[in-house]
């Protein structure tokens, strides 16, 4: 009992020494070798090793071993270490007694027996359930690991796991600091290397900023200082986003990230806000700074394009308005370059000609829209100056040919577009006359019908008047002729003339009767090309 208590006191002392060693050590490799060596000596173990594992790849790396101070980063195949795989699977310590005959070691028992290994222990180096590595122990003599030894090793493994995690975090921090320090030094060396270009940068009209891998400004030329309303001293060390205050902070960082991967970025618009409150649109280009002074340094050129972008927006707005205006026109608008290639074809032109704009623009020659030879005639008129002035053609009635081959009457007004004195294009405005012609035809027909109606009315009125006016004297003539016939004997010479007068008067009475019945204007051929009223057709047949 006393001996066991004494041994536990010894175990505690060793653990305290190991913990103190973990806290004081500065050389990681030496630390882990000392730990494995001390455990091997204390427990009379042939070999103690610290193994870092990569379960996904099935590999392990021995970073320290009790029997070899120089051993580190030695790769092992986990397929040959079933006890390690079992620890990874369960997350619990694995104790193997009589290893050559143990079922777990079936696949490697020959190797284990050949090395004289009798007992094995594998303990997880776990922190918060995460296995950081394995403490692997092998013993040839001395019997199996007893409960006290397993308890001691479990405690030692836990302390080692914490130390291992802290060491890795410390190395990561040191590595990051060293990397940042190296990058900063490299950037400063790169800037020093660029000193010979300082005069060139100072006289550039564009702003030039040199930034390090963290996007902090190393140098800013005078144009850049004026652009961003800062001095060189104020800019140095500041993050580029702090100086530009972009509306989209990620955009500039994306540019720098692309540059850090070896790409070049040109003419990227950044909407910036200077510290004095000015709103700018900057056209930014960026590239890596080439040379031997380190990586991660980039050159940014910045150009104020605020006015240009405003003008471009206004131009785009005007262009959009003109396009909508052209497409909203009820008249067809067709433009062609001086080679005859159609460059503009609005919706009204589509409706008249039956083509879609995408099937015409750049694909159809303007001569295909006109009857043969008409396009040349129109160009001669445009250039003559006699039909509306130089380069202009006043309203002219022509025909254009639709997609189906139909000849469509249109009213054309055209002009030549000049750049200076050079002819650049032609444009024509086409008004579809089909509806107008149809309306004119209907109006002409209506006028003809109205004229015919008026003529009929005049004829009827005239005929009625004539019949009325002729009836009275004709009645008198017929009456007197009748009296004379009664008083004159048929044998007298005057009887025959009187009879003729009476008969012709009766005939005239029939004619007057027909005239009185005229209801429409009907004619018939007379002498030569002249015509006279056809009383039989013009008179009503109603009694």
From TrEMBL:
<dbReference type="Pfam" id="PF13185">
    <property type="entry name" value="GAF_2"/>
</dbReference>
<dbReference type="InterPro" id="IPR035965">
    <property type="entry name" value="PAS-like_dom_sf"/>
</dbReference>
<dbReference type="InterPro" id="IPR013656">
    <property type="entry name" value="PAS_4"/>
</dbReference>
<dbReference type="InterPro" id="IPR000014">
    <property type="entry name" value="PAS"/>
</dbReference>
<keyword id="KW-0418">Kinase</keyword>
<dbReference type="InterPro" id="IPR052155">
    <property type="entry name" value="Biofilm_reg_signaling"/>
</dbReference>
<dbReference type="InterPro" id="IPR036097">
    <property type="entry name" value="HisK_dim/P_sf"/>
</dbReference>
<dbReference type="Pfam" id="PF00512">
    <property type="entry name" value="HisKA"/>
</dbReference>
<dbReference type="GO" id="GO:0000155">
    <property type="term" value="F:phosphorelay sensor kinase activity"/>
</dbReference>
<feature type="domain" description="PAS">
    <location>
        <begin position="193"/>
        <end position="263"/>
    </location>
</feature>
<dbReference type="Pfam" id="PF08448">
    <property type="entry name" value="PAS_4"/>
</dbReference>
<dbReference type="InterPro" id="IPR013767">
    <property type="entry name" value="PAS_fold"/>
</dbReference>
<protein>
    <recommendedName>
        <fullName>histidine kinase</fullName>
        <ecNumber>2.7.13.3</ecNumber>
    </recommendedName>
</protein>
<keyword id="KW-0808">Transferase</keyword>
<dbReference type="InterPro" id="IPR029016">
    <property type="entry name" value="GAF-like_dom_sf"/>
</dbReference>
<dbReference type="InterPro" id="IPR003018">
    <property type="entry name" value="GAF"/>
</dbReference>
<feature type="domain" description="PAS">
    <location>
        <begin position="318"/>
        <end position="370"/>
    </location>
</feature>
<dbReference type="InterPro" id="IPR003661">
    <property type="entry name" value="HisK_dim/P_dom"/>
</dbReference>
<dbReference type="GO" id="GO:0006355">
    <property type="term" value="P:regulation of DNA-templated transcription"/>
</dbReference>
<dbReference type="Pfam" id="PF00989">
    <property type="entry name" value="PAS"/>
</dbReference>
